[in-house]
Amino acid sequence: MKNWSKRAIRCGLLVWTLAGGVFPALAAPDFQQWLGDLRQEALAAGIPEPLVTQTLTDIQPIPRILELDARQPERTITFDTYLSRAVNKTRIAKARELYRTHGALLEKVGRHYGVQPRFIVALWGMETDFGRNMGGFKVIDALATLAYDGRRSAFFRSELLHALQILKEGHIAPDRMIGSWAGAMGQCQFMPSSFNRYAQDFDGDGRRDIWGTPADVFASAANYLSTVGWHVDQTWGRAVRPPKGKADLVAWAGLDKAQPLSVWAKRGFHQIDGKPLPTAAMNAALIMPDGAGGKAYLVYDNYRTIMDWNRSTYFATAVGILADHIGAAK
Ligand SMILES: [Ca+2]
Q: So where are the chain's domains?
């Protein structure tokens, strides 16, 4: 017997034993059969055969992704800790520097879509550290793993077909289609369906390249925000000082409990430096990510738009604060 086959048998036995003798023996053929069905579906959806063959053969589920997907989401850090990591001195400095470097382009994109450029840069920084960390997974393989896995199969299968459509249109080569373990792609971390809905070819080369073309990255992010309902004449919100000794702060908090700024002023809220709240006729909602004892923010409609992008108050607040740091450098 050749060495490689002895090794294969030893490995096979080891896996068999560890898994209680069931799963690994069945998993491989099942996945291959599933992949065969998927290839048929992709062909039926109009994806050309060479592309289907190139992307949907010789792939395997990625164990690390299954591990990450099975991990229970738990909030292990406070907002205070999150904010000190997400909006640290290095990130602020980098944001200001890139804001200057890409100033002319950002102004042009901002004017075209109606989004203040500091928010585009803040989102870029929060999502991928300005393009440095796009995730290390091939998007097709990641989505195939999650679509096969069963927890949210229909969603990821649909995203996979969206991804194939992007490859069909030639926006990116398959081996450069890189994203997070959950399939969020490129420098602005769009899911493939969001790409097909919002991504832009702002430099006009015929490709919507959110992986390597800053003009397309900025325009895609701005187009998302403006489509979802961004107000270019408004900011996101601000840190506020709540009235002292109010036991019902928590009862006032929540995005669904927006009130005119005048009501918040009557309730005793001030800007963080003690000045009165602005007198604009705007509705604002009270957000306290760490509860009544932590930081408090009054947020406007644009905050909801950031939350449409990412449903996390931690994320949305950090984007707003980073944007303010950029704006303060102007
Ligand atoms: Ca382009």
A: 237-328
CB under 5 Å of ion ligand 1: residues: 201, 203, 205, 207, 209, 213, 216
CA 200 to ligand 1 center in whole angstroms: 7
- Residue 199 alpha carbon to ligand 1 centre in Å: 10
Distance in Å, CA 54 to ligand 1 centroid: 24
How far apart are the C-alpha atoms of 128 and 122, rounded to whole Å?
A: 10
Read off the pLDDT of residues 275-324 as tens digits, 9 standing for 90 and up: 999 998 999 999 999 998 899 999 999 999 999 999 999 999 999 999 99
Which residues is 270 bridged to in the sheet?
A: 241
Q: 41 C-alpha to center of ligand 1: Å?
A: 29
Q: Look up residue 175 and give its DSSP letter.
A: G
Distance in Å, CA 216 to ligand 1 centroid: 6
How far does the centroid of ligand 1 lie from the alpha carbon of residue 206, in Å? Answer: 6
Distance in angstroms (rounded) separating the CA atoms of residues 134 and 122: 15
Residue 252, classed as helix, strand or coil, is helix
User: What confidence tens digit (pLDDT) does each residue in 169-195 have?
Assistant: 999 999 999 999 999 999 999 999 999
The per-residue pLDDT for range 125-173, each reduced to its tens digit, is 999 999 999 999 999 999 999 999 878 999 999 999 999 999 999 999 9
User: How many angstroms separate the CA atoms of 268 and 281, rounded?
Assistant: 17
Going by C-alpha positions, the residue among 223, 143, 215, 220 that lies closest to residue 188 is 220
Token reading at 301: 């409609």
Q: Which candidate, 28, 25, 36, 18, places its Cα nearest to that of 61? A: 28
Q: 23-35: per-residue pLDDT in tens?
A: 444 444 589 999 9
- pLDDT at position 8: 41
